[in-house]
From TrEMBL:
Keywords: Oxidoreductase. This is NAD(P)-dependent dehydrogenase, short-chain alcohol dehydrogenase family. Gene3D superfamilies: NAD(P)-binding Rossmann-like Domain. The keyword Isomerase does not apply. It comes from Micromonospora auratinigra. GO terms for biological process: fatty acid biosynthetic process. It holds the Pfam family adh_short_C2.
Length: 240
């Protein structure tokens, strides 16, 4: 089967990291806007609104290739890819080791790079347009106590700018959201005293919710944002 899946069933979307807090919220938000969502994660704990839960380790390029081949064969060519998969070790720089560093870069940056590559190649081969939304972070803009995490998200932002321009001629839009502090299990790994300090510096006075991040992702995935590409949308409560 080929071609973007539309019609009564709605356009197809792939969301990586679909078992996490933001991933589940993105799945629900895209479902509400009429998408059929394929949730991808290392474990099949997708939001119940997902059309299907697929298991893959998107940090491994070979698994990414197999994933998109399977999606194309079984479901069709997606209209939207959301690169949401991410890890946050909450590790001090002096405690880093090569294995942890490689995991952070492979998941946060590598999965975004190779996922977009596999998706864009399929779109270009079919002569179809598409939309990519990457989930970056405020840590990629202002740094992070976890240096590898901040570096990986900064690279996602640079990749978004680069690919948004490089793929525009193929009718493929590439944007990102940069969340601030969000109430998720990942944020729970931040030490309590540091969480309190962050909260005190957020102008709106609170952490964000996964649904608020998902709403921004859904807008960037929607044709309503068709003139937006190579752009990073801050969703951070005014924290800079």
């Amino acid at each position: 089967m080929s071609g973007i899946v539309t019609g009564p069933a709605g356009p197809l979307a792939v969301v990586t990291g679909g078992a996490g807090g933001i991933g589940r919220a993105v799945t629900a938000a895209l479902t509400r806007t009429g998408h059929r969502v394929l949730s991808v994660d290392r474990e099949p704990a997708a939001d119940p609104t997902a059309h299907a839960a697929l298991v893959a380790d998107v940090a491994v390029p070979a698994q990414v290739e197999r994933l998109f081949a399977e999606v194309h064969q079984r479901y069709g060519l997606p209209a939207v890819l959301v690169n949401n998969a991410g890890v946050y070790p909450a590790r001090d720089f002096l405690d880093y080791d090569p294995t942890t560093y490689a995991e952070v870069l492979d998941v946060n940056l590598g999965a975004t790079f190779f996922g977009t590559l596999a998706y864009a190649r399929a779109l270009v081969a079919a002569g179809r347009p598409g939309t990519v939304v990457n989930v970056a972070s405020i840590s990629g803009q202002s740094g992070s106590p976890d240096a590898a995490y901040g570096a990986s998200k900064g690279a996602v932002i640079a990749l978004t700018h680069s690919l948004g321009r490089a793929l525009a001629g193929h009718r493929i839009r590439v944007n990102a959201v940069a969340p601030g502090l969000v109430d998720t299990p990942m944020a729970d790994r931040i030490p309590a005293d540091r969480r309190d300090d962050y909260r005190a510096r957020i102008p709106v006075g609170r952490f964000g919710t996964p649904a608020e991040i998902a709403a921004a992702v859904a807008w960037l995935a929607d044709p309503a944002s068709s003139y937006v590409t190579a752009t990073v949308l801050d969703v951070n409560g005014g924290l800079h």
